[in-house]
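Appendix C. Worked example: FAD:protein FMN transferase
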Amino acid sequence: MSHRVLIPVDLQAPSILPPGVALRRLSGQTMGTTWSVQALAPRSLTQETVEAAIASRLQRVIDEMSTWEADSLISRFNRAPAGSWHALPEDFFTVLDAALTMATDSAGAFDPTVGPLVDLWGFGAGSVPRDALRLPDPALLASTRQRCGWQRILLDRAGRKVQQAGGVHLDFSGIAKGYAVDLVAQALRECGCVSWLAEVGGELVGEGVKADGQPWWVALERPPQDDSPAMVVALHGLAIATSGDYRRYVDHDGQRYAHTIDPRTGTPVRSALASVTVLHRQCMVADALATVLTVLGEEAGLSFARERGIAALFITREDDVFRETLTPALAAMLE
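Step 2, the predicted output written as structure tokens:
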């Protein structure tokens, strides 16, 4: 199949690989998904050392940010009494601070307090198992929405602590996986790796070049049944995150309800958008932006991305026909 090549316009020439490096391939499971790494490292750096460094970072994310773990920091915060203050470790603070900044910038299209709505619609850790979607009772939906709202979060940035306003249920599912990718890259760098391609649940970051001097070429994710020519990007100092309605959804009366909740309405996003892919230097930011653009929809999302110089690929589905739109920042990368 033919493909199109994307080269970041501000791409810096990767450093020349030092002699004596070896390719390390590692993989595993985390956060209900998989992770994989290809890294060029000094031969003196053992596979076990690299794997342990990665595992410790990923476990930190689970211990602090997984709503599926009853004893995680986020779960304990969600159960805490109203008015209580909670000191935050660096990782949790970084993600919450970024999430609130994104909520402000997107006027609530991103909201880290959307957890009760995610549960209500059957997509969260607190959901009642069921075989098919049942639309929530309007009164229950209205009362659940009252529990949400990023404005209810009082974050003391100087003291690095947060207050539980009462019934606030944080959910970092739209940003934590991207942060985990950034932490894996940090672990590889601190171990002494000189080049890598790291992936967690389909979100990726690349640095440097492969042993043959070629970039880490990565194909942008496309929806199933979309047979358009692939786009491949040279992933050096760059991360990729994709939000797609085909990843997790239920069908009800001929309508597809994707797992992404629009915090402004309290209901799953329903639009012609099949997927949004974002490229950014930080995977945490790319992850959150992919969610924001999905919630905003094609027209408002494109406007948001253009105004901020975001490199993004929008793919819409209409009667099983796919159409793509590139933001100017992404189009500028095309060879």
